[in-house]
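Sample intake sheet
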Amino acid sequence: MNKSLIGANLRRIREAQGLSQSEVADRSGISRLAYRNIETGSSTPKVSTLQNIVAGMGIKLQDLFVPLRTLKNVRFRALKKMNSRENILCEVARWLDDFNQLEDLLKQNKPYCLANLPGQLSKRKGLSKAKRAAELARQELKLGEKEPIRDISGLLESCGIKVYPLTLASDGFFGLSVSEKDGGPAVVVNVWDRISVERWIFSAAHELGHLLLHINTYDVDKVVEDSDEEKEANFFASYFLMPEKVFESEWEDTYGLYFLDRVFKVKRIFQVSYKTVLYRLAEKYGSVVWGKFQAAYKLRYRKTLNFTDEPEALSPEEFGHVPEILRAREPDSLSPSSFMEDRLSKLVREAIEKDKITLSRGAEILRLDLESMRERIALWD
């Protein structure tokens, strides 16, 4: 029994759950001292004791024996300190290892088609570099000059970037990215219910911007956001999702509509937040567009739109049977089907059908229980 591995996993999971050693000990029916000795690796626990601990923490016994791989070439910055940071990095490492193992097993490794772009951009700086990166990326991905991006997950996966929709109850973490050196390139997006689908899409494009613009700054030890780099990644995402010429064309086509409706229509075309549209308009017309939008919104809906909120949540019918209060508030919001990873699921299905992996291994890779995996297989067509 690897005492240090068990202890490291216990500490990681406990901190991610926001629990103290005393709280875990109470839930497990053991003393705090006994628990502390297990977590620090000072004592060898009985299997029955470990079973009580995992039951108290709501996890599986096998979670304590998962080897920890440390990601180093990762960009993981958050708006505030996170106790779950180490846990997220371990989960992403496990996901990447599973993904790469499946690709090797099925001989379906997909080359990263944007690998040469950072070199082409090396002589440029600032926002002009970000804008040029968006143009080159769209060209490399064979997107038409006026073609909106309808499925960013599928688009990224088609060019060799792995996409992981991760659910984390945090409004300070939107996503991260991993370089090729650590098993990527990969983009992880927080798809928590209280973050809008539009933000999921923008976060994916934002992380792609970092992969192309700031790959030399990928370092797991850097936790504080660089404001200039964040602005460049945001600028990239805006022009990647809304190319300049087609945005101007679509905006002019809505000339006869009310300003509020113009913003909503354009945002639906490009699958972005209304804020992304307003930021673009502000580049041309100045900050007056924000006040104009707020005034128009208040006139129509008889309430003020807080800048930090995403208004008008989707109904449960549109977004699944979940209480409306839990959903992100975004005018004319998108469905979560607008952001769905499918390549890993496809690889798992193919590996199971070819008897390359077991049903239980497929469930483990997709982070499903066995019953849910059987239900999924029954619905395959």
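Comment: The chain is about 50% helix and 5% strand. The CA atoms of residues 348 and 362 lie 6 Å apart.
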